[in-house]
Specification:
By secondary structure, this protein is α/β, with parallel strands linked by helices. 47% of the residues lie in helices and 15% in strands. Helix 8 runs antiparallel to helix 9. The longest helix is centred in the last third of the chain and has 32 residues. The radius of gyration is 21 Å and the shape is globular. The N and C termini lie far apart (49 Å).
């Protein structure tokens, strides 16, 4: 049985992990939680919190299911108390890539993150279709990185990640640096910014008199078609007029040098902003 100290056990990700592992005979969960809402979430799962030192004593794995802004600080408290050979798992690359994890060569650092359910995957089950995040009903791929530790520990970490992110379709092995390119750079810095621009465009046309229902139906359909074309999921292309006006829009909406967000120094800046909770506007 693998003993797991789960920090932030009563939070959103902590509860997702508990729901997958609580009754798995391969794992013994030691739940660390201090917030009243988190304690209530544990009680609702018939679990009691374990004091931090007791949870860490002899633990095989410590999962830091914590917000990025506090993860580094907690890691500096937790890591020195772990036994040699223990594995520390983070659920996001930000703290790891920002250098927030303390140096200790005799433990393993494993970083993993869900890809979330694909817009191109169809789920037969209605509950799975309603699971936008994944890890409850909908299937999803995951990414994993062995940041530090013996090669054999990759399989151990991936097995655990597959268990608590289930149902998992496939797992991709990448590096922490590559994971930071995926998130925050690609999925959040660029992806969320563009998605929120779409939302703002919807609100703008509604403000200018278009009925909301009509605007939503039009936009949601016109999101699906370009996605299919741009990612080669259909056998037709944009019209000449659409190509022309899309280029007009690209020049009007995007900075010409927007791809600099993928440069190593920019990615570092992004993860630092996440762990510090602030960024310099206008950069």
């Amino acid at each position: 049985m693998t003993s797991i100290a789960l920090l932030g056990a009563g939070g959103k990700m902590g509860c997702r992990i508990i729901d997958h592992l609580q009754h798995d005979p391969e794992y013994q969960l030691r739940c660390v939680e201090v917030s009243p809402p988190g304690l209530a979430n544990l009680a609702g799962r018939s679990l009691a919190p374990t004091p931090l030192d007791a949870a860490l004593a002899g633990a095989d794995v410590a999962i830091l299911a914590l917000p990025d802004r506090v993860l580094g600080k907690v890691a500096h408290e937790v890591v020195p108390k772990l036994k040699p050979g223990a594995m520390v798992i983070t659920l996001d690359p930000a703290a790891a890539h920002a250098g927030e994890l303390p140096a200790r060569p005799d433990i393993t650092y494993f970083v993993t993150h869900p890809c979330h359910p694909s817009v191109f995957e169809y789920e037969e089950d209605a509950a799975a279709r309603a699971d936008f995040f994944g890890g409850t009903k909908a299937r999803q791929p995951i990414v994993c990185a062995l940041m530090q530790g013996p090669e054999a520990d990759y399989a151990k970490g991936e097995k655990l990640a597959r268990a608590f992110f289930a149902p998992v379709t496939r797992s991709h092995r990448i590096t922490v640096e590559q994971m930071a390119l995926l998130e925050p750079a690609m999925a959040e810095t660029v992806g969320i910014a563009l998605v929120m621009a779409l939302r703002e465009s919807l609100e703008e046309v509604v403000k200018r008199g278009v009925p909301r229902a009509a605007a939503e139906d039009f936009l949601f359909g016109h999101i699906k078609v370009p996605l299919g074309i741009a990612f080669n999921r259909v056998d037709f292309n944009f019209s000449d007029g659409a190509k022309l006006i899309a280029e007009f829009g690209r020049q009007a909406v995007l900075r010409l040098d927007w791809k600099k967000v993928f440069e190593p120094e920019s990615v570092k800046e992004q993860v630092r902003a996440i762990v510090e909770g602030k960024f310099k506007a206008g950069q």
